[in-house]
Amino acid sequence: MTRKLPPEEENEKTAAFFKIKPSDLDAKPFGGLEVLTEIRKAKIHQAQALNLKGKYISDPKFLVGLTKLKRLDLRENLIPVDRQEILKESLPDCDIKF
Description:
Layout: H1 7-18, H2 24-27, H3 33-44, E1 49-51, E2 71-73, H4 81-90, E3 95-97
Parallel strand pairs: 1-2, 2-3
């Protein structure tokens, strides 16, 4: 069983994983550090489903590598159509809801 990290350590770990600064401002287009932590854990555990509904995501670039996903809920986010198309192309076996 893995121990739960304090929020500051979790944020630093997530920022390092995605090679961004550990600030909310740098993480904002991706839904914030909490959302990036969910995405990081989904990548590590090769998740098949991920619910990111209403998480204020405007840039889904860190979702592109989640090739094991079968279901992805991105409803109620502000993702531009061109980025939606890129995500659909990169995850062809995933049922993505925008």
